[in-house]
Protein 1
Amino acid sequence: MRRQVIRQRQESFEELVTQYEKLVYTVCWQMVRDSQAAEDLTQDTFLAAFLHRSDCPMGHERQWLVRIASNKAKDYLQSAYHRHTVLPGDEEMPPGRAGPSPEEETLARSGESELRDLISTLREPYGAVLRLHLLEEKPPEEIALALGRPVKTVHTQIARGRLLLRQQLERRGIHGSIPK
Amino acid sequence: MEVFRNDGHLTDQALRRLAAGEKLPELTRLELAEHLSFCDQCLERYTALLERHTVLLEPSPQCRQSLFRRIRLQAARVFVNRYAAAAAAVALALTMVWSGGPEGWLRLPDPPGERPIVTEHFRDWTDRWNDSLNRAVAGVNDLFDGLGLS
């Protein structure tokens, strides 16, 4: 009896793999543009699906698998992006130094209106996040709630938005760092 | 190309180009993956596009073989962890029972003098333990038989 149940579960999972293998691989490939990485992510996706198969909403297997695949691809791309992107000014503050840096003071002197102008020129999804974070001084958790995004995504968007802002500051000839 | 609309959702153009397999910049793909990992609406739009307009790619046969091998390993690991935790709990319980002397924090009640039931009880308990062990071993065998994926 127990053996039969295990076998049925295995068979139904095999069917799921057979049915959606190409879809999951295609999603992974479209995201990462590398065949080997896409195969690894396809395996990761199905392995995660196998471990959490009780969470799969009946009748929505396709969307569920595409979501897992997107998540896996996001993690892969994020680590690759971090490997070759250095956020200038994001280094740890040297120990024993308190208060705003000279760059921050420079930015403070430029005033909030300039910062507001700069943020308004940022494309989505960074404009809304930085407006809430830098101008309204809301914490990432509150922003996540307000915008309906995961907190981790908001953290990433704040970091990336700050990089974009800094690039704009540099283009305008204002050298400084964005207040944290 | 605009990736996001003003309402924070993905643009049709971005989704169409992704689903068509166009080579988008790495940051754009990262932004798309990030958004699709939490937004139900855009995920629905993307999967609909994939279904209607995309020729799906096929992974190599080794991909599936490797996947099932990883699943077998993972399932065995989960199984072993579960039984290891149960065995550790039993060992801990037995240690506490057996080490609980007159000064110990846990004492078994003294059996009535006229009824020598301790040995019977102990024999009964060891029999049950053997049964449980046999069932556990049979369970392991069932699991590995069941994981013999074709």
Protein 2
Amino acid sequence: MNHDESRPQENGGQGTTLLGAPSRRGPMNVFPLWKNILVATVCLLGALFAAPNVFQPDPAVQIRSLDADAMISAAQKARVLAALDKAGVAVIGVDEDDGSLLVRLQDEAAQLGARSLIADTLNDNVGDFVVALAQAPTTPQWLQDLGGKPMSLGLDLFGGAHFLLQVNMQDYIAGVVDNSAEGMRDKLIDERIRFLPNRNWVDGQTISIGFRDEATREEAKAALVDYQDFLVQERESAGDLILRFTLTEDKIRALEDRAISQNLTSLRNRVNELGVSEPQVQRLGRSRIVVDLPGIQDSARAKEILNKFANLEFRLEALPRARKSQLETYEYQGRMQDIMRRNIVTGNNVQDAQQSYDPETSQPQVSIELDNEGGRKMHAATKDNIGRSMAILFIEQKPRVREVVRDGETIEEYYTIEERRLISVATIQAALGFSFRITGLSLREAQDLALLLRAGALAAPMYIVEERTVGAQLGDENIRRGWQSVAIGFALVLAFMIYYYRGFGLAANVALTANLTLLVAIMSILGATLTLPGIAGIVLTVGMAVDANVLIFSRIREELKNNPPQMAIQAGFDRALLTITDANVTTFFVAIILLSIGSGPVRGFAVTLAVGIVTSMFTAILVTRALVNLMYGGRKLESIKI
Amino acid sequence: MSDSQSNTFQVDFMGKRLIAMVLSGVVLAAALGSLSYQGLNLGLDFTGGSLVEVKLAKKVDPQTVRGYLVDAGFTNGTVQTFGSDEDLLIRVPPQEELGVTGQVGLGDEIFAALAAEYPGIVLQQSNYVGPAVGDELAEDGGLALLTALLVVMLYILFRFTKQFSVGAVTALAHDVIIVLGCFSIFGWTFDLTVLAALLAVIGYSLNDTIVVSDRIRENFRRARRGTPIEIINQALNQTLGRTLVTSLTTLFVLLALLFAGGEVIRGFATALSIGVVIGTYSSIYVAANVLLLMNISREDLLVPEPEQDGSEDGSYP
């Protein structure tokens, strides 16, 4: 048994002779002042940072501009408040923060009415604002300034919807390779570089083009230098000179990153239309995206919006002299329309789209704004093609699942079927640039097209692989039941400790309270999300945290048989320390494993378990010791009750 | 009672170790038997599919509700009450023919069908887990369990000796298998929260085992005479008070969770409650028994010639 190095300043070099005469400076079981101050300070800080969780949030309506740069003007704010005042809705406060406005309301009943009223007031012409139900924290300002904030509630406690989306990378990569092959073919034809006729250029992630002689191949290589995503190799097969373009693993990763980040952007735009105050859209792993919509009322609508796997492509009409390999044919308004295979720009390049009316004819139209790249491409493609038609192809991905046998094992495989249709064919009236209009649509068509373009296209098809929706009522019930069990469990443990250990039990109970406070404080500071399994973790921590104290106290009892009280207290604490550390370190490992491997509910539990172990070690060893020292230390004791 | 506690236990634990071995053997066999024949009643997390929980305005017979669902075209769903008579749980296994997006909407369709029939109905929760995700969760869960056992084994090997390491891991595997066996025998739903509970059982039982092992090691080192059985018995008695108190306080909070925590947390609380009881038993009988079976002796635990400050056995990584 060895405890010396853990407290070298107190009993250096005593080793196993602890039972002999103490050779120490000063009185026994007294902490130096700095140590008492340290313990007290940590506990006070804990109380301070746990405090925000006590304040009940106000029901509120959040108003946020869809355009990140735009702020809500003073005039708009005044209009909102005037409208609410007129409708008799009691507003108890208005906060401004990062360009968003938080209108605090008297009660929850007023929330829904206030939301639609505000939305109507602000969005009379176009939907520029997100108006969402929200909870406004009531933490006092000075505490907020110190960084104090309450734990955020998980969806199982707050109500809301959680979605896990799988991005179909295979299809996306295949699409990129296909489109590149088309581009290369066009480029070679434009530059009059002769290549060997062969239909199948594409094989998985490689494109192979054959040439008759070395000089042509060099020319082609120079012409196709723009395709930097590919690794270019020169090969020879059956006397033909081949130029092979392969997507490298690095490039695939880069493409995946690009696809995911674009899908994220587009999802965020779509989610904004749902009116949720704090939506979370995040990447998970290599090809998944998590969407959390706290407090959403209508999860079916959310699914509808998330499940739109559509993209648009702007393509030129095929001229009669076009080769079969260059065009595709679709039905449009009862006739067959030939269009070029290669797209000019896709929905990815669309920055904004609004439905409006043509000032001359009063016909509905869609005004489209492209980004830099899109504008450049559009201009290049249309400047020589005035009078020719441009088509908009709508591509919808519909995910399906099938069973396939691979390596003798039956596994589920996701695949997508694609539906393509032309939604517009219009004549190019002038060279188009960054902004142009599409006319000749019905009002309904124009509205739908604008919404789809605005919400942003997805770079790669996605589908929902997991959904968890919790109704607000169940959320309330979960939180009530959760805290109720914490309270009951906590009370039972407190009562038992007092009954069983008397004065020492009191010290343990103060330590346990400090433990709970510190746990909540650290979770709040870390910005952790509280879930129902997380509450279970807190309850379990309460039950198990006394273990360290129990170990110490039973050790003191044993030591009391052979030692005077002060020595017994000293030895009890010292000898239990090693055991406590050993036991907690291993449990901490388990918590870390849970945290790294687990998902969802398991993680919520693991976080509280891990933090709980740290706080309970601190409180059991230092807080209890400080209290016991204050109660018993530094004076002569005949006997102690434990 | 306070003054009479310390070290008054004089139970001959190891004298009954054969009985305990037989008992553990029988329970383990029953658990393993049920696990291999009946398997686990896996929850939505692992099987995939859809689940809808609704609260009705008044009590309804689940069979009637099922009838409506069949009429509406949902033929293979199960309907059961959940907690109270007004709470219904409708579960539908994965539907391949609906495709990926079709199944996602199934919960909404079921709710819509019920809402038409029962006014005042409230959607409590609606979950959908895709088949691939279910498989992944199951795989990750198994991996987490095994990793936890392995890490524990290595840590104890490093801190104690191989006998303690094998003893602790045997005790943990014993606990996990028996808790799993209970879930199999009684057909309770095994979902992600139960898996988390199982890992917490490992943490808890380990805590217990280490406290006992620590004392056994200490006593071996200190004792000049006495057989291993006597030494272990003494250590078990010395730690018994602490073992019981900690198990008791933990059970207090678990019972609070079990009775006040609601349906969602019930599986978790059940698994942990069983685990705490079994874990207490196993730290006394299984871990210590393995030490004897592996012929632990004082020599195994002697500290190599102590250094000046004796930090050999007290050092921490």
